[in-house]
Amino acid sequence: MTEVQAIECPVCGYIIYSRARHDFRHCECGVCFIDGGFDCLRYGGPDLKEIRTHTLEVPLTRQELYDDWNHAQDKYGKIAPCGQPLSSADWASSPSLPSSTCAEPQS
Prior knowledge:
A hairpin with a 6-residue loop joins strand 3 and strand 4 (about 35). The strands form 2 sheets. Strands 6-1-2-7 form a 4-stranded antiparallel β-sheet, with no helix packed on it. The protein has 2 helices and 7 strands. The protein is α+β, with helices and mostly antiparallel strands. Mean pLDDT is about 80; it is low at about 85-105.
């Protein structure tokens, strides 16, 4: 299990986290971003007060997360809001959060 810092987009509801230092990720609608992985986390969007932050436990090692980013597999790093389908077949097969499960982030 690896603890990751994540943000939730106030517009599309996606929860995103960065898997590596240079893993710059946008939410599904492109309003929010997160970057820096475990080294120097930064995030942003039009109004920082509206972005919710979360600490999540991901059932993977840091190396597995890094490899996912480094090999452009993109199975991890985005979690669809409850009730919405994941937009990629890779995310649907992700062991970190099945597509039929709602995200219950820890605050």
